Please model this.
Amino acid sequence: MTNRILVLTGPDVAAGGADAACRRLAELYAAGAGAVECDVGALAGPPGLAAVETLARLQLAARRRGRALAVTGAGPELRALLGLVGLGQLLGEPEEGEPAVGVQERVEPGDPPV
Model:
């Protein structure tokens, strides 16, 4: 399995564009992609709810297949918007209330070393 890149552009986050983006994601997984990197750096203008919808649907499609999806190239506005709607984990950020990966909150007596 290899990692592949899915580049989102303006039409992908326009009305009805999420369907096409999900089809392209499915094609990447069918071609043997183990994980897909979704590059949103090419999106122009301020992000809106259509971008959030597209990314949320891509995440659901990836989860249904048990595959990984990571978003790269997000600007500060999109990062903030995804954080507000609870999709910060797409950016590699821990979910609210969840510790960051590899962080142990406390050590209990008898815990094995990490």
